[in-house]
Amino acid sequence: xxxxxxxWCEGDDxxxxxxxxxxxxxxxxxxxxxxxxxxxxxxAGLSWITILRxxxxxxxxxxxxxxxxxxxxxxxxxxxxxxDAGIIRNKLKVNATVTNAQNFMKIQEEFGSFSKYIWEFVNxxxxxxxxxxxxxxxxxxxxxxxxxxxxxxxxxxxxxxxVVYAHMQATGMVNDHEAECFRYKEV
Length: 187
Fold this sequence. Notes:
mainly alpha, Endonuclease III, domain 1, 2 strands, 2% strand, DNA-3mA_glycosylase, EC 3.2.2.20, DNA damage, DNA-3-methyladenine glycosylase I, Tag
């Protein structure tokens, strides 16, 4: 019997694997939260499948998403990234990644971890929605608006409410799997 999946991922093996193994699983690890933050930043204005297909290129280009290294990138490294055809070569997004890494560490210093900071916006536990169809998922919520505003106040770039809500979905802060999806109850 075929598993019922959220409609957005069906028909592409990479999308289905991401959906089945990662999307919506609560993430409390700062390294993984930062990886998703980078990927969501680059996804702004593009499709998620485009980013997934380039994920390993991003991993190689950005030192395995090591925010401590990224925070210290100099102009020569940024110039090299802008020549890398394996990633999205957007100067504003590359520069934002460096800035966001620096601000990520400031949040860690203030709160003990980025995870503690971000999960407070949902009182430490995932919000479980009850969607019949993925198309009914909101693009933003009051929580993503508040989180976006706070991140921007802290100097983050490319963290509008839609990007932030996508990050919340990806990292399991909100469960937007369709109620009939086999992953809905699992996560």
